[in-house]
């Protein structure tokens, strides 16, 4: 059973379009993070959210943590080819230091 | 800024061979971890360490050993390689915050077992 479910698994869009990807769980998380991974590289941290309802913005990327701290979303405005990559959500639960990952959303932005 | 350094970047092993994947970090983080990444499976935790001398199992520990003699180094040993261990392996060094942990990853080791 996957603790963090990401959707969609694959997404291919044209440059300039908006998109939202989701990270859902039936469990409560003390924090959630979003990472971006490019081919041949390790994941790179984009953001951490820790408070239910929290919204963080990073240029054209908007991250939201659900009120119940069971889900998160990543919205990209006016996507660019440089946004292409694998987007992974990850979270920690309770007092555990262990970071669990979703399977990721593979985004392709076509010029 | 080196961050997390993994070696080698690529490796081919024969079934039954053993090897050690090296990982070193220069951020003075107490927490380090090893993941494997397989197509359609995401990142799965193999072993982790909360400090020198302390290690524990993750989700998929079978066939792997770790040790943590220093804060900087966290090697992963494959005892007797099997084709099922063909994967990309990532080492991470984690910054512990209040109620959360943030991972900084190496560039990965692509391992093929034939």
Molecular structure report:
The complex is a heterodimer of chains A (111) and B (114). By secondary structure, chain A is an all-beta fold. In chain A, β7 and β8 form a beta hairpin. Chain A starts with a strand and ends with a strand. By secondary structure, chain B is mainly beta. Chain B contains no helices and 11 strands. In chain B, strands 2, 4, 5, 6, 9, 10 and 11 form a 7-stranded mixed sheet that branches. In chain B, strands 1-3-8-7 form a 4-stranded antiparallel sheet, with no helix packed on it. Chain B is globular and about 40 Å long. In chain B, 37% of the residues are buried. The interface between A and B is medium-sized, with 24 and 28 residues.
Sheet-strand content of chain B, in percent, reads over 45%
- Multimeric status of the protein: heterodimer
Which structural category fits the helices and strands of chain B?
A: mainly beta
Average pLDDT metric of chain A: 93
Percentage of residues in helical conformation of chain A: under 10%
DSSP strand tally of chain B: 11
**What's the number of helices of chain A?**
0
Instruction: Write down the Rg of chain B.
Output: 13 Å
Largest interface: A-B, 24 and 28 residues
Shape of chain B: globular
* SSE order of chain A: EEEEEEEEEEE
Sheet bearing the most strands of chain A, described?
Answer: 6 strands, mixed
Low-confidence stretches of chain A: none
Give the termini separation of chain B: 35 Å
Element order, helices and strands of chain B? EEEEEEEEEEE
Strand content of chain A: over 45%
Helicity range of the residues of chain B? under 10%
